[in-house]
Amino acid sequence: MTAGDAHRTIEAVWRLEAPQIIAGLTRMVGDVGLAEEFAQDALVAALEQWSESGVPPNPGAWLMVVAKRRAIDRVRRLERLEGKHQLIGHELQIRQETAEDLDAALDDEVGDDLLRLMFIACHPVLSAEARVALTLRLLGGLTTEEIARAFLTSESAIAQRIVRAKRTLADKHIPFEVPPEAERAARLSSVLEAIYLVFNEGYAATAGEDWMRPALCQEALRLGRVLAELAPDEPEVHGLVALMEIQTSRLAARTGPSGEPIPLLEQNRGRWDQLLIHRGFAALLRSQNRAASPGPYVLQAAIAACHAQARTGQDTDWVQIAALYEALAQLMPSPVVRLNQAIAVAMTDGPATGLERVDALTDEPAFKGYHLLPSVRGDLLVRLSRHDEARQEFERAAALTGNERERAVLLQRAAACASAARPSPGR
Questions:
Q1: Neighbouring residues of 257: CB distance < 8 A, sequence distance ≥ 6
Q2: What is the pTM of this model?
Q3: Most buried of 75, 79, 240, 264, CB within 10 angstroms?
Q4: Pairwise CA distance, residues 243 & 262, whole Å
Q5: For the purposes of burial, counting CB atoms within 10 Å of the CB of 213, is it exposed (0-12), middle (13-18) or buried (19 or more)?
């Protein structure tokens, strides 16, 4: 095996196995930063050895054994130096076991360990940005460079964010555990938020040259599916998975030949992935069967299902969608939810009614600098044949968006409005 082949294999193995390895090590040493350090040591050892000796039959187990030996060596070294069993303030009893015994002890709890790792990476003590970065690093197996590229920021900024997050967890002595029942709902909400933030950045990139980053959507969906297996009785988990499955089904239809965005109602629905839609419907049914009343992700998944069920844009049940947004607004009184509800109302009651609802949101602080508000106003003004006003809105939206593909489309729409607003020759 060439060094290049070994390196590619190691990257693939690391992406799959890193969460389990870090989770098992965190349970051993009680510190997620140290756990990742030991796991990285094992990765370096693999890079050094596999290109010569070949990839072992069970590469994940090989990495785990090497990482645990590094952890045990560190503890024993501290024993000799300090005369006590202590590692960064966390007790670790060293038993005289073989590496195989230790493997079995860790593997027996791998599911619980992954769930604990999710809860600690998404702890509310961390900022939303830190939770996203740490989730992608610890649970997604992404490198700092990959995370920085995905969010169009510098590698050093992401590295500092991750270091600060791990230091915060250690300084505040956040336990490696599934939280008690009283805290679980709030903590689970934090986990779901982090996963969905990753998904949304992939689904509609906030900046850069590409309209979407499908790899981020796939990573978020993978994490959601893992979480659904680890927490099978949580309806909001299944609701988020359903939402992401259905939205991911549209990816192939969301851009044109040159990468330009295609609006939902103009998409070729024959390109929607029916397998993902069916998976989404199944997850939605699981969520509804477990929920006494639907939560925010279940409601958003139900909205996505309405779109998926319609054979054409004209067949969409906008009345049901508007009602679902009303229910969502009761749970999440967000201006963005109200904006989406206004779009649905415009489809049922006409653009003038929709515009009235949108205009009622223009003074919301959350919409300062938010490009979608003028974009939606532009759409509604076009439908009312108020082309000059629409042009101004599209130009304003283009100035506010950070995504180059979206900016180009908005400027094209502004130009079309300018053309439509000109008097015809001879008039």
A1: none
A2: 0.78
A3: 240
A4: 20
A5: buried
